[in-house]
Amino acid sequence: MSTDKNRATAAAILPLVGGPDNIVSVAHCMTRLRIGLRDRSLVDDAALRALPGVLGVVEGDDTYQVVLGPGVVARVTPEFEALVEEGSPAGPRTVTAGDLAERGAALKEARKARNATPFKLFLRRIADVFVPLIPALIGCGVIAGLNGLLANLGWAPAVVPALAAIASGFMSLIAVFVGFNTAKEFGGTPVLGGAVASVIVFPGVAKIDAFGEPLSPGQGGVLGALAAALLAVRVERWCRRRVPGTLDVLVTPTLTVLVTGLVTLYGLMFLAGEAAAAIGAFANWLLAAGGALAGLVLGGLFLPLVMLGLHQALIPIHTTLIEQSGYTVLLPILAMAGAGQVGAALAVYCRLPRNGSVRGTVRSALPAGFLGVGEPLIYGVSLPLGRPFVTACVGGAAGGAFVGLCNQLGVAFGSKAIGPSGWALFPLLDGTSGTGVTIAVYAGGLAVGYLAGFAATYFFGFTKRMLADLDTDAGTAAPAGPAAAKEPVRA
Fold it and tell me: Among positive and negative, which fits the CA dihedral 347, 353, 354, 359?
């Protein structure tokens, strides 16, 4: 295809996607011209499909994609980019932090819409059962860490038993709180959910046999409490529909507690206990056998899991692991995703020395990022830019691989609570190799995540076109032509 024909194709496409002022970004893959749009309603899909040379159009997650075919798209894209620059009255428009924030908000809303599936909504409701428990988990976890420090140093021996009781009291009854919150979240009477869940932690269950084995108090833990409360909600609703109003206040709670309690004792506790044991064994095996590879996969995929809404399924798993061993071995590895995010943001800051707006956003979001609060960096910086989000995942994978390798080498550790991440996780760390080694390994993982995320983003996080758009002062136009061509291609 000649240059004139490539330019003609680009010129035909441009007005049908809203013109130069409607274009936010331009990129291409093997077969598709990928266009970021300000206003999707300005696109004429039917006319685009009818253009000679256009093989089809696709609505992507964050781009509008025109299918041109292999080879053709690589020649049409630069012509399209040139027309966009020529067609803008003020030259190429500088991308500011406001633009990134607007794009990030749109991506966030699109993610919410994609996550509104029945399965993901159910996971979100399960997460809502556990989220209110996080402050108590954090407080008790920090107190447990302080108690362990005092015990190891031999300080304040009279206070150590008291701190142990304070730290352990909540965890011994966490099943009751899970049952209460589950019934509340799924439309039942909260106290009935707590009542059936309390059966799990009652010491007297040791006198009961199920499946030929005696039960033990706490068997099944939060998974059993969750299942028992969900069943209680169903039984309660069934009773409400059938029991006469005059007897409802007496019969409904009695049947709910009785039926659910018996099913819990003679079924759910045993089954949930087996499931909890399997989860704990699998997590320990995964890191002991998989080591660096397991850490790489977990650390690298956590940010995409967050985008898909599937990370919520991990909350009851974390809580189960904390119940079993006192800490969750998964959270420190998943926290490496935040380290990769911080490293990527620092690279964005360094690569855009003339864009004070974007650099200001990075500066304001970094403190929260270091403390493990990643949303400002995700939706304000990396995700709207596209490539830096991928390179942030590379940093998370590297940090996760480091922590996973150390675990495989015998330095097993985890977090006593869920919620905090980044630097905020230091007071909650616990493991089998001592406080100093545990802290050193976690700090090493963060450092690896920072460095890998920075390097991947600095060298591969920007295309030539992205730098031309982004690395400019908001008060001046971006360089075009030969001046822009001096910028080396990074990807």
Answer: positive
- Main-chain phi, psi angles of 35, to 5 degrees: -120, 125
Q: Which of 29, 140, 350, 406 is catalytic?
A: 29
Could you give the CA distance from residue 117 to residue 113 in angstroms, rounded to a whole number?
A: 8
Please tell me the distance from the alpha carbon of residue 396 to that of residue 301, in angstroms, as a whole number: 8
- Say how far apart CA 360 and CA 473 lie, in whole Å: 12
Which run of H or E residues covers position 67?
strand 64-67
29 is catalytic: yes
Higher pLDDT, 229 or 81: 229
Q: Give the torsion through C-alpha atoms of 179, 185, 186, 192, to 10 deg.
A: 40
Triad 140, 229, 141: Cα angle to 5°: 10
pLDDT in tens, 168-224: 899 899 999 999 999 999 999 999 999 999 999 999 999 999 888 899 999 999 999
Burial of 145 (0-12, 13-18, 19+ CB in 10 A): buried
Cβ atoms of 196 and 257 within 8 Å: the answer is yes
What is the per-residue pLDDT across 28-47, written as a single tens digit (0 to 9) for each?
877 788 888 888 888 888 88
Assign residue 19 a region (left: φ > 0; alpha: ψ between -120 and 50; beta: otherwise). Answer: left
Q: Which residues contact 451 (CB under 8 A, 6 or more apart)?
A: 343, 395, 398
Report which residue type is found at 149. Answer: L
DSSP secondary structure letters along 348-406: HHHH-TT-HHHHHHHHHHHHHHHTT--HHHIIIIIHHHSHHHHHHHHHHHHHHHHHHHH
Please, which contacts does 423-429 make with residues 24 or more away whose CB atoms are closer than 8 Å?
Answer: 423/370, 423/371, 423/372, 424/371, 424/372, 425/331, 425/332, 425/335, 425/372, 427/141, 427/142, 427/145, 428/138, 428/141, 428/142, 428/145, 428/327, 429/145, 429/327, 429/332
DSSP 46: H
